[in-house]
Amino acid sequence: MFVDNPDLFADKFRVKSARLLNWNYSQSGFYFITICTHNKNKFLGKIVDGQMKLSKAGEIAKQELLKTSEIRKNIKIDDWVIMPNHVHLIMEIKNQPIVETHCMRLKTNSPIINQIKPINQNNRELKRDAHSASLRENGFKSRQIIPNTIKLFKAAVKSECNRHQLFFTWQARYYDRIIRTEKEYWAIKQYIDNNPKNWQKDVCY
pLDDT of 124-179, one tens digit each? Predict the structure, then answer.
């Protein structure tokens, strides 16, 4: 497989990917996900001669990752790699209807909100309603398949590490990229497969 730019994805997980406002993260498709450990600590193992040697925490992460497709039949872990301080994976959501959400996030400091002065209504109540709408949207997003699956995976790894008295913690957020073309899919897949041997060039090294 020839890739026009082999460094295309080298920096993708350094910048937080904004969740697309009108994208339903339960929609069928392929998603490139990166989950990092807290402060890039190398909890998950080390690279030896271009191959990943998993630590105990890394083995736990592997087992929980493999369980994901077994537990959730509408999800397939298409490809993955566990690195010393992050996990890359391609997650496929299968057989979901195409649904587009149309939500607007309203902030309490929005100039539009502040300019509205409805009759017989306190401005504080209006701001509170807008803030509640934002919280409801965040709650809706967190229940979608991608965010919920990542949340449960991270929690399961953390819980199992605690059970084995292993100090381990994840970075609070994760990074996603919606894969839109076949060319992009194969480029990302190659990037994942080559990650261990390219470790010393990795920005997280």
Answer: 554 454 444 443 444 445 568 888 999 999 999 999 999 999 999 999 989 988 89
C-alpha 96: how far from its chain's center?
Answer: 19
- Taking the complete model, does pTM exceed 0.85, yes or no? no
DSSP assignment letter at 51: E
Q: At what angle do helices 145-163 and 56-71 cross, to 10 degrees?
A: 140
> What single letter denotes the amino acid at residue 205?
Y
Instruction: Tell me the per-residue pLDDT of 20-53, one tens digit each, with 9 for 90 and over.
Output: 545 566 778 899 999 999 999 999 999 999 999 9
Q: Which of 140, 144, 23 is nearest to 74 (CA)?
A: 144
Q: Cα–Cα distances in Å, from 138 out to 3, 6, 46, 104, 133? A: 37, 35, 36, 11, 9
Contact 62, 82 (CB under 8 A): yes
| DSSP β-ladder status, 29-37 and 170-179 | antiparallel
What's the mean pLDDT when you consider all of the chain? Answer: 74
Distance, in Å, from the CA atom of 169 to the CA atom of 68, rounded to the nearest integer, reads: 19
**Cβ 74 vs Cβ 95: under 8 Å:** yes
Domains of the chain: 12-100+137-201 (3.30.70.1290)
65 and 4 Cβ atoms separated by less than 8 Å: no
